[in-house]
Specification:
The protein is an alpha+beta fold. The protein has four helices and six strands. Residues 32-141 form the SnoaL-like domain.
Amino acid sequence: MPTSAASDSRRCQQAATAKIMSMPADAMTTLRAFYTAEAAHLTDGAPFENMSRHLAPDIVMYQATSLPYGGEWHGHNGFRRFITAMSNSWDGLWFDDQTFVTDNNRIVVHTHGRLRARHTGRELETSLLQWITFRDDLITEFRPYYHDTSAVLAALGETPASEGDSPTR
């Protein structure tokens, strides 16, 4: 039975839409679960394993080198050290507004939120953009871009790191 070009086009479009939407839906589930586990870990001391189950073994976290927890953090052990370093800086983390943009194995997240500095007690209201990649429904890479790293440092009571500092961990 012959089919029309319009009918074929609709079927192809539906198949393509289903394929594109299926990966981001799974990635979104993973990311939301990770964010929940991360906030619980930072604010309530929940186990690291609640986060690591959403991370690929070869996860890489890239942080602005000017931050106390800056540099590249590799693998689960590196990510654990990053979370420890970040926890040493912050004792509160709240996501007030988030916008998600998905594209196959990537999610870009714009977050407006608040952090509370552990040592100064200062609360920072800020925005950041995260580029996050996925493989097999696990997070493989985080690349956060801060709106204002100097405001982050001021909340922490820190001074900027030397130019060229780029630790790999």
